[in-house]
Amino acid sequence: MKTYIALVLITSIISSSIVGGILYSSFSAKLNSQAAAQTSSALFTNNGNSAQAVKTGTTSSSNGNMYSAVDIAKKVGPSIVGVRMTVTSSISQYFRGGNQQQDTTSEGSGIIISSDGYIMTNYHVVEYADPKSGVSSQALLEVFLPDGKQAQAKFIGGDDENDLAVIKVNLTNLPVAELGDSSKLEVGEPAVAIGNPLGMEFAGSVTVGVISALNRQVETEDKTLNLIQTDAAINPGNSGGALVNSKGQVIGINTVKISETGVEGLGFAIPVNDAKPIVQQLVKYGYVKGRPFIGISGQEITQVMSARYGLPVGIYIVDVTSGSGAQKAGIEKGDVLVSLAGKAVKTMSDVNTIKKGYKAGDTVDAVIVRN
Questions:
Q1: N or C: which end of the chain has fewer CB within 10 A?
Q2: Res 55 pLDDT > 80
Q3: CA distance 65 to 21
Q4: Known catalytic membership, residue 124
Q5: Which CATH class is domain 2-14+291-369?
Q6: Is the Cβ–Cβ distance between 73 and 192 less than 8 Å?
Q7: Which of the following is catalytic: 106, 182, 239, 324?
Q8: Which CATH fold would you assign to the domain 182-274?
Q9: pLDDT single digits (tens) 314-326
Q10: How high is the pLDDT of residue 251?
Q11: Is 230 helix (H, G, I), strand (E, B) or coil?
């Protein structure tokens, strides 16, 4: 049966307060009391306090300002981790019987931003651990430190729009990366990329280049990002790793590489100044405030899956957030969302694209199919 409903988009500060509560349920009161006072101020300002937090045990070169590539690797390398995401999936678990399972593993990099285990990375590195993905209960996040330690990580918050996320491991006394000021970058100055190209096999790789350009508008999937361009080699697995200046400060988060025949040296990073306020909110709230929020987790139903299970092409609703616009509109787990704001939706990307055209409080029409 096809049902037409009016869906009110609620601001994420309302609807995500519940999600945020879930994300913070395992944390102590200490986190809540220190989030603004310590995490936000000490980690994201380039002053004496942040410098003291960086426990690298290295010294600058003779001119007092510049580091060699060797010194940069020694200073920043211990703060760059490997991130592995394993998703155990079973199509039938969402629909009709069966228990065939398959593990899918992907690997990337991350940057330690607090001594008590907060790690900044790209959203696309950890996206399936996000409760909004609909498969987070099947996702396992692991972090691999340069000193050989390994730990399971918890997804804290993510922002697909800017491809940023924060995860956390329950470890202490971790080496913290010093964050620089990307607004002071100049084209031609040295840049060093540190990360795990092609995964853990090449963990901690260091490549050297220059800042090739600033404010590049790069389209990636369904979004356009403002990025730093560099010719320091960036490869799959480097995502979420650090782009570092000659002072040993992180000035970018490695994100994208253009891979075409005959093209070399086109790597891109999110400017750290763009990332700071977003990461601060992800640490503190688990989300970015003020964004419209629908409140559904979904599994995409492809043409093949539609034919196999007798369901319409669209978004199979895996979960509905309590108090969200979706719940208030009557959407239920097991519904299939086929249209939003008069436009057919086949993927969660379609849903997100439509959502960007509205603000919190707007009402949109949704069409669902319910058996």
A1: N
A2: no
A3: 43
A4: yes
A5: mainly beta
A6: yes
A7: 239
A8: Thrombin, subunit H (2.40.10)
A9: 999 888 887 788 8
A10: 96
A11: strand
Give residue-wise pLDDT tens across range 6-28: 565 554 432 222 222 222 222 22
Cβ(130)–Cβ(158) below 8 Å: yes
Residue 224 has pLDDT above 50, yes or no: yes
Best CA proximity match to 203, nearest among 111, 270, 109: 109
3-state secondary structure 112-157: ECCCCCEEEECHHHHHHHCHHHCCHHHEEEEEECCCCCEEEEEEEE
**In this predicted structure, which of 43-52, 129-138, 178-187, 233-242 has the lowest mean pLDDT?**
43-52
Tell me the C-alpha to C-alpha distance, in Å, between residue 210 and each of 183, 185, 206, 207, 232. Answer: 16, 11, 13, 10, 7
What's the pTM value of the predicted model, to 2 decimals? 0.69
Contact predicate 228/285, CB 8 Å: no
What distance in Å separates the CA atoms of residue 185 and residue 176, rounded to the nearest whole number? 22
- Per the CB < 8 A criterion, the answer to whether 3 and 368 are in contact is yes
**Is 71 one of the catalytic residues?**
no
What is the pLDDT at residue 112?
Answer: 97
Average pLDDT, the chain: 79
Q: List the beta strands (DSSP E) in the chain.
A: 2-8, 10-11, 80-89, 102-112, 118-121, 139-144, 150-159, 164-169, 190-195, 205-220, 223-230, 242-244, 250-257, 267-271, 292-293, 296-301, 314-320, 336-340, 343-344, 363-369
User: Catalytic residue among 124, 136, 159, 274, which?
Assistant: 124
CA-CA distance, 252 to 193, in Å (whole number)?
Answer: 9
Per mean pLDDT, which range of 2-6, 97-101, 268-272 is the poorest?
A: 2-6
Span 147-165, average pLDDT: 93
Q: Indicate the domain borders of the chain.
A: 2-14+291-369, 18-177+277-285, 182-274
Q: What is the pLDDT of residues 326-336, one digit of tens each?
A: 888 899 989 99
Hey, what CATH topology would domain 18-177+277-285 get? Thrombin, subunit H (2.40.10)
Radius of gyration in angstroms for the set of CA atoms belonging to the chain, rounded to a whole number: 21
Q: Tell whether the torsion through CA atoms of 333, 27, 178 and 74 is positive or negative.
A: negative
Active-site residue identified among 116, 159, 160, 163: 163
> What is the rounded end-to-end Cα distance, in angstroms, of the chain?
6
> Catalytic annotation on 335?
no
